[in-house]
Amino acid sequence: MGELAVRQLKTVYACNGVEVTHTQLDPGQEIPWHKHTEVADMFYAIQGLITIEIAGSNQEIVLSRGESAQVSCGLAHRVSNRGNEMVEFLLIQGIGKYDFRATDDAGEDKTP
Fold first, then answer.
1. What pLDDT tens digit does each residue of the chain (112 aa) get?
2. Domain coordinates of the chain in residue numbers?
């Protein structure tokens, strides 16, 4: 995935094609447009409001504490903190081989 400009991105579990990452985003930070070819992303909100945008659509998911949402494999998305306070969430990815393919906001692959 390379370096992302986020407050924290810490893998807390990785085994058998499943990875769990504890993530924190400061106000204005984001995980840019991307997709995965084998894994789905499951987001579980711990603190703050997490915004998940789906490329090529007007679909936007906003999660608050205790809420969760899944982004299917192959679906380009961006995750951001549009609020004024830090957000915190668990990102559960699997089952399969992890990859991070940069895309534009229409979902077109930009990874060489």
1. 446 778 878 999 999 999 999 999 999 999 999 999 889 999 999 999 999 999 988 899 999 999 999 999 999 999 999 999 999 999 999 888 878 777 888 788 787 7
2. 8-99
CA atoms within 13 A on the CB side of 44: 8
* Cβ 82 vs Cβ 49: under 8 Å: yes
What sign results for the dihedral spanned by CA atoms 108, 112, 41, 23? negative
Helix (H) or strand (E) holding 111: none
CATH fold label, 8-99: Jelly Rolls (2.60.120)
